[in-house]
């Protein structure tokens, strides 16, 4: 009987230990994959020193055709990379929107390792770089899936003039519970809370207004429940919610119409920061 109990205990504990030990592999599956960041077509490559990670390569494009257009900083999802961000936003760049396709530590040949802290540091550094590169422009930050967490961080701390959330989640712990409902004590096991809705509420309680926000959700999302995007939109006063007719994840990547919606929304926010 004692042996049976030990075996049952090991069977119960093994998945929990695996999740604890390997969560970075689950949360950041595309790290160390893909080709190094490289210039191509309208996209130029730059490197930026990010505290705790080193010099990170990323892409940017500027058609220089619309001097009043906002600058778009794109923070991609965990299964994506800067080169794909560039493909998804090339139509915006050609329409006159300067675009910065950020790349994370440990992705596309970059040094460092991805984490909640390093993604925040990367977002902060690249937002500052974009401000210096295009002074006097509004900075729009687009967070795609896991990128929504550092994007919300920038907006909630006054580092962004405009916020776009594509297939965003309320928190990483809540998302893990959706996919692993049997896992106990997720809040204790998860080293990367990425609690966007808490950041929004904390900013509002502190008297800091969230910037104009566009939230994009798909008709059916197999990764992040659509209800999470709806909850984020509801938490941000005056936000705009776009419901894509496309089913998938994320919206910008799979729905060309959503890119037109984004371009029109950005076009309505020309001019210097308020």
TrEMBL record:
GO molecular-function terms, A-Z: hydrolase activity
InterPro entries in UniProt: AB_hydrolase_fold, Hydrolase_4
Protein keywords: Hydrolase
SUPFAM superfamilies: alpha/beta-Hydrolases
Classification via Pfam families: Hydrolase_4
Residue ranges of domain Serine aminopeptidase S33 in the record: 71-180
Stored PANTHER family: ALPHA/BETA HYDROLASE DOMAIN-CONTAINING PROTEIN, PROTEIN ABHD13
The protein's name in its UniProt record: Alpha/beta hydrolase
Species, as recorded: Roseomonas indoligenes
